[in-house]
Structures are given as structure tokens and as C-alpha cells.
Amino acid sequence: MKARVHVMLKNGVLDPQGEAVRHALGALGFDKVEGVRQGKVIDLDLAEGATEADVTAMCEKLLANTVIESYSIEMA
Amino acid sequence: MKAAVVVFPGSNCDRDLAVAFEQAGFDVSMVWHKDSALPEGVDIVGVPGGFSYGDYLRCGAIAAQSPICKAVIEHADRGGYAIGVCNGFQILTETGVLPGALLRNAGLKYICRTVDLKVATSDSVFTQGYNAGDVIGVPIAHHDGNYFADAETVKALQDQDRVAFTYEDNPNGSVADIAGILSENRRVLGMMPHPERAADEGHGGTDGTAMFRALAGMVTAA
């Protein structure tokens, strides 16, 4: 059983790395990029019986800092 | 007077912090991250700078879950005194002992130099050795020192006089130029600049000494 967690900086939190990527894309001539937000993808291999609620608890406790980050979970 | 300095794998300012406490007259014990209790009768806990657990996931995130951090949180909850410097500040925000979070520097670069800090309040054991408005020179050395908190939290910090230090020339994008903050009971200080690196003639500056001197005799075990 697998889960994929996406962690992104919340809207309104400055993402300097995303900004740097946006500038670099602009410098390469990709002039249609209006914004870049950079985040993390965390893949979890889970034992049978693990639930989305377990993964939510992991996100709340460790995987995301909810002061600055939001997360989403895909169970597969 | 007893101080404990926490040592994580990757801490690199632990001994500097211990020396600063010792020079102010504290007996210092070093506490390993796997320990689950602080030594008996500790008056103040120092959470040092460095790169605990390689800064994996987020700065301070793994350290915040370590056994010793549970003891540090309990110490703070009991009304104990603590200071977190640099990575120690990041750890204290990750544990929730202090509000907010430290983001990547706005300029994306690691910055290592002495900066001018304004003492924003003298109303704490940490800052009582200064006058509010004093400007002191203290080194910073960080990649993720960009203090962030939502507008409501920042307003509360300001209204409650809990901003301890501000940058005179904001080096990292911190909201409201915040360099250090106090807990609600004013007994926990977190700051990105390193007062322990400005506490000896050999450091090239001694503006941090007043903080450690002021702590001596003022902090009591909880």
C-alpha cells in the first residue's frame, strides 16, 4: 500500500526558491510563466491496514509544518 | 545555577553556548538528544545552533520530535527558562514552544556576518542587561532565518511586547524585521543571531555578554 503526500508552502507565504526558478525560466526565454511554487513530494510505503487518517496524522505531526505549509494526500 | 545544553547530531554551536553560560557562572551539563530527561534542577536550557539531523525535511523538524525535546517542551510548559539560538530557534518553533516558522532567506543565500540588532524590549531576563533601543552587533550564520508568522500572530507579538530583537537592516526577509521573540510568559527566547558568538574578546565583539550575565542569578529551576 502506498501513499503520496504533496507538501506546498501556503498561499501568501513567500517562496523564494519558486521565485528564483521563475526568474531562471524567464532568463531562458520561457516568457509565459507567471508564477512558480516549489514543494515536496513524499512517497510512503505503508503496511496493510494503514489508513488515510494515519497519513493525515503523520502530516500534522511531522511531514508538514502547518504554520507555513499545506499538504494533500493521495492513497494508492 | 545550572544550565543544560542540548546536543543533537549536527549541532555545532553547543560548546560555544556552554562556554558562554560557564563564563556567566553557570554549571553546564551537555544533554544528548536521546536522553529523555533534563538533569535535576536545571535553571535554563540552551538549544544550540547547527544543522540538527542534517536539516532533513525542514530545519529543526526531526529534532523537534527527539526524546530530549519532549523534556524541553515539558520544562517550558512548567514555566522553565530556555533559549534557542539559530537552529535552536527553528527547533523551538517546530515544537510549538514559540510561534511562527523560519523560512529560506529571501535572498536564497546563506549569510554569515555580524549584523546590527536593535533590542526591542528590555522586559525579559534575557534582555534586561540592555536598554530598549540599544543597537548591538551580533553574528548571524543561517540559510533559513526568514521569520514568518501570520499577521495576527505578528500583531500579538508586537502588542504583547514579545519581539526581543529586530534587525536594523533586514538581511533575510523576516516579517517586521524580527530577529528574536519571547514566549508568552517571557521565559523562552528564540533568536536567529548568535549572542554566544559575541561573548568573548576573541570573538571580535562582546555585545552578547550582557545577555548571559543578566541570566545569571535570575533564572530558577521549574
Profile the largest sheet of chain B.
9 strands, mixed
Strand tally of chain A is 3
> What's the CATH architecture name of chain B?
3-Layer(aba) Sandwich
Number of helices of chain A: 2
Shape field of chain A? elongated
Give the topology string of chain B: H per helix, E per strand: EHEEHEHEEEEHEEEH
**Count of all domains of chain A:** 1
The figure for the number of domains of chain B is 1
The CATH class of chain A is: Alpha Beta
Write the CATH homologous superfamily of chain B: Class I glutamine amidotransferase (GATase) domain
- Helix run count of chain B: 5
Largest inter-chain contact set: A-B, 12 and 20 residues
Spatial arrangement of strands, main beta sheet of chain B: 2-1-3-4-11-10-9-6-7
List keywords for this structure.
heterodimer, A: 76 residues, alpha+beta, Mth169, Chain: A, three-stranded antiparallel sheet, 3 strands, elongated, B: 222 residues, alpha/beta, Rossmann fold, nine-stranded mixed sheet, two-stranded antiparallel sheet, 5 helices, globular, purine biosynthesis (chain A), ATP-binding (chain A), phosphoribosylformylglycinamidine synthase activity (chain A), PurS (chain A)
Describe the 3D structure.
- The complex is a heterodimer of chains A (76) and B (222).
- Chain A has helices spanning 16-27, 52-63; strands at 2-9, 40-45, 69-75.
- With 76 residues, chain A is α+β, with helices and mostly antiparallel strands.
- In chain A, strands 2-1-3 form a three-stranded antiparallel β-sheet, covered by helices on one side.
- Chain B has a nine-stranded mixed β-sheet with strand order 2-1-3-4-11-10-9-6-7, with helices on both faces.
- Chain B is globular, with a radius of gyration of 15 Å.
- Chain B has five helices and eleven strands, in the order βαββαβαββββαβββα.
- In chain B, strand 1 (2-7), helix 1 (14-23) and strand 2 form a beta-alpha-beta unit.
- Classes of the chains: A alpha+beta (76), B alpha/beta (222).
- At the A-B interface, helix 1 and helix 2 of A face loops of B.
